[in-house]
């Protein structure tokens, strides 16, 4: 038998739940949905839009949810102000105004970000947008839930709320009350302020052209499993494979496809001018990889040079996109190399 009161009861329950969720928490949840859809699902590439969406998540929201959790009240009774001691659940002993809340939100966000970056560094995931955005969103989501719970236990008369409606009324009154000239001036003033804030924020947050680069390194793995520069093999036996590792880091601010060409070269070094002329070359391998912004990847591989001789150059050429048929230091985006000796006789350490 159905209960005719169930829809009404469910609607009332949903209405009561909505009224108990602070308006700023609802706005935060909506923003998290938008920023994750835009930056991780859709993959928006416009730098201004990415900055506009990413800056609040990075610089404000992590600290804001902490502040609203620690300070759920707008006023504190006199007897509590004089109280002290320690409690498992944080107790608010002092009052802070809106400006102090905003300042603390920025400050705590800047304190959280290095800890978050350190956690990613020790994790198996790369420091990329599809890791940072969901990770920070989860942190903000948990903080928003804690904030809503804390404020829900506070008397509504002293509960902290963001006065969105009052702000909108004041803004509407400021912009549109008065004659036509005043309205035009006020609208232009508000738009200029918004534009100025956007330009300054983009100047600080958007990557500059000089900061876009890719890094190519030759490394070896030590006994503790860490990659370090040094201890490279110098002696090879012709046709016998030896293990090497090359690392590529993408700081181009966008996903980038690379081609790495490895070849052994017999060169003539001009001691007086410092120039190097390639006399003979033999390509050993050619590999491709695509990296997300900020991602570093290590390519473990083996090479088996057939060219014999002393002071041969084992070169690695990095190209963005496809590589030409004959790679060279002049055409490569990045170039690193080792000086090696290759003999027909087995190498004895």
UniProtKB/TrEMBL annotation:
Keyword Transmembrane helix: yes
Keyword field: Membrane, Transmembrane, Transmembrane helix
Residue intervals passing through the bilayer: 25-44, 50-72, 102-125, 131-149, 180-205
Boundaries of every DUF1616 domain copy: 30-341
Any one Pfam family match given in the protein's UniProt record, by short name: DUF1616
Database matches in InterPro entries: DUF1616, UCP018671
Keyword Transmembrane helix: yes
Protein known as: DUF1616 domain-containing protein
């Amino acid at each position: 038998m159905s209960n005719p009161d169930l829809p009404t009861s469910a609607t009332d329950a949903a209405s009561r739940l909505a009224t108990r969720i602070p308006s700023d928490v609802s706005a935060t949840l909506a923003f998290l949905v938008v920023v994750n859809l835009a930056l991780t699902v859709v993959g928006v590439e416009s730098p201004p839009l990415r900055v506009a969406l990413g800056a609040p998540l990075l610089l404000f929201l992590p600290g804001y949810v902490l502040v609203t959790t620690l300070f759920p009240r707008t006023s504190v009774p006199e007897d509590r102000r004089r109280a002290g001691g320690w409690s498992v659940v944080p107790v608010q002993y002092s009052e802070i105004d809106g400006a102090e809340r905003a300042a603390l939100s920025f400050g705590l966000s800047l304190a959280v970000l290095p800890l978050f970056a350190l956690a990613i560094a020790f994790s198996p995931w790369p420091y990329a947008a599809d890791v940072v955005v969901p990770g920070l969103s989860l942190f903000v989501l948990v903080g928003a839930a804690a904030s809503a719970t804390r404020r829900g236990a506070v008397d509504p008369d002293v509960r902290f709320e963001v006065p969105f409606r009052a702000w909108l009324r004041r803004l509407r009154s400021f912009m549109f009350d008065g004659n036509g000239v005043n309205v035009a001036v006020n609208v232009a003033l508000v738009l200029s302020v918004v534009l100025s804030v956007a330009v300054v924020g983009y100047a600080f947050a958007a990557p500059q052209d000089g900061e876009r680069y890719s890094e190519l390194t030759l490394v070896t793995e030590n006994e503790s499993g860490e990659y370090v520069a040094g201890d490279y093999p110098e002696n090879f036996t012709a046709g016998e494979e030896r293990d090497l590792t090359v690392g590529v880091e993408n700081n181009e601010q966008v996903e980038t496809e690379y081609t790495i060409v490895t070849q052994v070269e017999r060169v003539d070094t001009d001691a007086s001018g410092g120039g190097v002329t390639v006399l003979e070359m033999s390509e050993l391998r050619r590999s491709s990889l695509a990296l997300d912004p900020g991602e570093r990847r290590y390519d473990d591989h083996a090479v088996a040079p057939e060219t014999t001789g002393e002071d041969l150059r084992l070169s690695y050429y990095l190209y963005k996109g496809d590589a030409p048929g004959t790679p060279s230091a002049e055409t490569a985006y990045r170039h690193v190399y080792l000086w090696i000796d290759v003999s027909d006789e087995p190498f004895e350490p």
